[in-house]
Design a protein that fits this description.
By secondary structure, the chain is α+β, with helices and mostly antiparallel strands. The protein has four domains: 74 residues, no CATH class; 33 residues; 107 residues, no CATH class; 72 residues, no CATH class. Helix content is 55%, strand content 18%.
């Protein structure tokens, strides 16, 4: 007997199940007539039974197909694919709908707003820097270099450059002092003003002079950097941490008390309470005080870099 295709078996089983359901309903209708019971009530029961059968039909249909596939030893694709319509061949594409596109646009906008808000928050920290504050600035892909703040606005910042130029030490000191006390002098010099400073230093639009000798161009000494060109700005701070705030004096007292307590406990543990007097405590105070003062001094003068702005 030739083997039948699973699709034929599947169609025949569906027809058989529907025929059996119709036969059951017809038989029950005849019984109703012979019994004389209300036909409407029995019909409602049959309708409810048929709905339950319809709900369960997809389950046993799937089980039947799986059994047929396993019995024939073929996969569903090899067995019968004449009733399967691939998505690619039917022309259907999984393009996002208008709601999905709107959600994606809103998510992108919120991400961009969050990044812009974070960048604005970081840039606002520069406004708190006092004129003359030393910073370490990275512009574009260049190496970090030291500068001194002159002015900061939303479009960029103006800085004093006395680190990368071969200026005399006296001139560097005068310019740093002007950046701290009179930053408006430097800004006004960029607009064409002339200022005579200490050590015969003069600021003019055409350069920086000591007496009548030009030592640098004004654009080399006073730089205006656009905000978009700034990659990172750091400040140098001293005395961070507990010991940095204590300093040498606070470190001496903390070290003296700690050293005296430790020395007294060690002496009592080694020689007994009756044999230890205040000498061990005083010796520990002296050694601990010296050690704490030295460590506090070094911690107070230790410099660390603090990033206050980084481009998004």
């Amino acid at each position: 007997m030739p083997s039948r295709q699973p699709s034929e078996l599947f169609r025949e089983s569906v027809r058989t199940s529907l025929t059996d359901s119709a036969t059951i309903v017809a038989d029950e209708a005849i019984d109703l007539d012979s019994a004389g019971r209300p036909i409407a009530a029995r019909l409602r029961e049959n309708a409810m039974r048929n709905r339950q059968l319809t709900r369960q039909s997809p389950r046993w249909m799937v089980l039947m197909v799986c059994c047929m596939v396993s019995s024939t030893g073929t996969t569903p694709v090899d067995a019968s694919t004449d009733w399967i319509v691939p998505v690619a061949e039917s022309g259907m594409t999984s393009t996002p709908g208008p709601i999905a596109r709107a959600v994606a646009r809103e998510a992108a906008r919120l991400t961009a707003d969050r990044r812009a808000g974070s960048a604005d928050l970081d840039w606002s920290r520069l406004h708190k820097l006092a004129p003359g504050t030393e910073i370490i600035m990275t512009v574009g892909g260049s190496q970090p270099e030291g500068r001194y703040v002159v002015r900061v606005d939303e479009s960029g910042l103006t800085v004093l450059n006395v680190t990368s130029l071969p200026l005399p030490p006296a001139v560097k000191s005068v310019l740093r002092s002007v950046a701290s006390s009179h930053p408006d002098y430097l800004s006004a010099a960029q607009q064409g003003g002339t200022f005579v400073l200490e050590q015969s230093v003069r600021l003019r639009l055409d350069g920086v002079f000591v007496g009548d000798r030009k030592i640098a161009d004004l654009g080399q000494v006073i730089e205006t950097i656009a905000r978009d060109d700034v990659a990172e700005i750091k400040t140098r701070k001293k005395g961070r941490g507990v010991w940095g705030h204590l300093g040498p004096i606070g470190g001496y007292f903390v070290g003296a008390i700690s050293g005296g307590v430790v020395a007294g406990v060690v002496c009592q543990a080694a020689a007994g309470r009756d044999r230890c007097d205040s000498g061990a405590f005083l010796t520990g105070m002296l050694g601990g005080g010296i050690a704490g003062g030295v460590y506090g001094f070094r911690a107070a003068n230790r410099e660390t870099d603090d990033v206050i702005y980084r481009a998004p």
